[in-house]
Design a protein that fits this description.
It is a single chain. This protein is 0% helix and 59% strand. It is built from no helices and eleven strands. The relative contact order is 0.33.
């Protein structure tokens, strides 16, 4: 399974970005899709996940501002990021789980200026 993430960039505080991550390759049943963020000098942390049934989970820091969604027909997961803050600056990685195996994308950089 290969993951291609896109949508990162530079945005001012209060702005919005939409990240996308498309999965390709040997796909037969992706269970969980998610986004993780790694800020400079920090560990990678969960931002949001979504199951195949549509159940979502968010980090407390992004609740009410970020929305995760997925298009199962396109094997794509999205992260709508609103009301961005400088502390949201990070490399965002997508991750999918299929048959108990985890796959990671290459990361896309989000920089929020104050």
């Amino acid at each position: 399974v290969q993951l291609q993430a896109s949508g990162g960039g530079l945005v001012q505080a209060g702005g919005s970005l939409r990240l996308s991550c498309a999965a390709s390759g040997n796909i037969f049943s992706i269970n969980v899709m998610g986004w993780y963020g790694q800020a400079p000098g920090k560990q990678r942390e969960l931002v949001a996940t979504i199951t195949s049934g549509g159940n979502t989970n968010y980090a407390d820091s992004v609740k009410g501002r970020f929305t995760i969604s997925r298009d199962n027909a396109k094997n794509t997961v999205y992260l709508q990021m609103n009301s961005l803050k400088p502390e949201d600056t990070a490399v965002y990685y997508c991750r999918v789980v299929q048959a108990f195996r985890s796959y990671w994308g290459q990361g896309t950089l989000v920089t929020v200026s104050s």
